[in-house]
Each structure stands twice: as structure tokens, then as C-alpha cells.
Model the fold of this input.
Amino acid sequence: MSNPVHAPLRGASRGRLHFGVRAFALTLAAAACAAAAGCAMPTHPDSAAGPSNPLNPAAVQLLDDTSWVLQSAQTSDGHAAFDVPNNPAAAPTLKLVTTSGQRHAEGFSGCNRFSGPYALKSGRLALGPLVATQMACGPDADRIEHAYLDALEHSSTTLVQMRSPQQMRIVTTSGVTLTFARESR
Done:
């Protein structure tokens, strides 16, 4: 009685085996190429941004537990939307905290303190509703405060640069761009 495992291959069986080995080798080679292409080192979104545009909407996901100071507020044609004080201690601020397990925004709006929830969704920072203390500070400070809080609650795009100098821009639905610098820790 012959052992079928060690029996010599004959005729059509040998051709099918040869074809099967070739198909297996091709499948293995294709899988190796696909694996090599898929195993590229992942990069941080900021490292993929070119030097001409380091601001990246994908970096919005890195905003939790950061603090920002408003540097400028400009309309879409480049004019000042409202005056931002040159003194950093008087400039509006925005702090995004998660210490309570909830996303909470707080800051100084030029006259009063404000707070409220925030969310990071669809590549943008969504704030509000915001509430503020009610001190009377005069018409100039009130105008800055109203414009700043309105802009924060109507963001349409958020761009973030997490490499130095760290910067965030919030573009509102009306086209006003708020530019913030990261507050040092």
C-alpha cells in the first residue's frame, strides 16, 4: 500500500499544484507590498503643514487645557473689527479647561469675566452659550466685550498652529478673524 502523502505527483495534479504555488506567491507578494505601504510612520498634522500655511484645522483637537490671549480682531478686508488693548493684562483671554471632566471655556472679555461650555467638532472650536459677569466698564470696554463675546459664539472655522509661535485663529460667520497667541504656562 502506498502512502498518499508521499506519492509522486502525476499529470494534471502536478499542474494544479504548480499553478496554486504561483498564485500563492503572487498573493503573498501583493500582501507584502500593501503592508509596506501601509506601515509608513504617522506624522503629526502640524508637521505636514507647509511653511506657507502652518495653521492647521486638524490641530483643533489639541486645544484642551490651553490658554490664549487675543492679539487682533480683523474684518475680512483687513481692517480692525474692534480695538484690542496693547497691554496683555487688559487684552481679552480664552482658557479651555477640562479639569472637571467637562469641556469648559472661561476668560476675560475686556471688562467682565465669562464662562460656558465648548466643543471641538468638525475641525472647529464651538463655544457657548457664554455667560458673563455684569460690571459696567464704560462704552469703549463694553463695545470690545460685546464684539469679542459675539465673535466667540459665532465661529465658523478654527485654525491652530501648535509649533512655535503657537497661534490660534477663529474665523466667524461674519468674516471677522480673531488671532490669539498661546499664553505661557
Residues 171 and 177 are 4 Å apart (CA to CA). Residues 11-39 form one domain. Helices lie at 11-38, 45-48, 139-153.
